[in-house]
Amino acid sequence: MSCNVALHVGTVDNVSLEVGGVDVQALEVGAAVIETPPYQGEYSVTPSNAAQTLSTAGRALRSDITIEAIPSNYGLITYNGSTITVS
User: Fold this and answer.
1) Which residues on neighbouring strands pair with residue 29, listed in sequence order?
2) Residues with Cβ < 8 Å from 12, sequence gap 6 or more?
3) Mind listing the pLDDT tens digit for each residue in 22-76?
4) In angstroms, rounded to a whole number, what is the distance separating the alpha carbons of residues 48 and 72?
5) Domain map of the chain by residue range?
6) Residue 27 burial by Cβ neighbours in a 10 Å radius (0-12, 13-18, 19+)
7) Which backbone phi and psi does 79 adopt, to 5 degrees?
8) Averaged over 1-27, what is the pLDDT?
9) Spatial distance between the Cα atoms of 59 and 10, rounded to a whole number of angstroms
């Protein structure tokens, strides 16, 4: 689906534009066309022992990315009186 929307804005700081929840892939500002492809990855991440990269550079985000809390059993150290266990 393709749709052209004309929007005339004067000098305004922090302008945000959302068109009916549709991902905007290109925005024409005067003679310049600003292309921002939508981010298609995960929006919720749980920490792990390996590095994780979300490919968000140069992408438009639909919402905030949430970093979940570290699981309560992450790096758990237990001692039963004779043995230390790290899990």
Assistant:
1) 32
2) none
3) 555 565 666 666 678 888 899 999 888 788 999 999 888 888 999 988 777 667 7
4) 12
5) 1-87
6) middle
7) -135, 125
8) 55
9) 25
Q: Tell the residue number behind the tokens 């990269």, with chain if given.
A: 53
Q: Are 36 and 60 in contact (CB under 8 A)?
A: yes
Q: Which amino acid is at 22?
A: V
Q: Residues of 74-87 as b/e, b for ≥16 C-beta within 10 angstroms?
A: eeeeeeeeeeeeee
Helix or strand (DSSP H, E) at 66: strand 66-67
Assign 3-class secondary structure to 4-50. CCCCCCCCCCCCCCCECCECCCEEEECCEEEECCECCCCCEECCCCC
Specify the length of the chain in residues.
87
Closest CA to 6 of 25, 29, 24, 40: 29
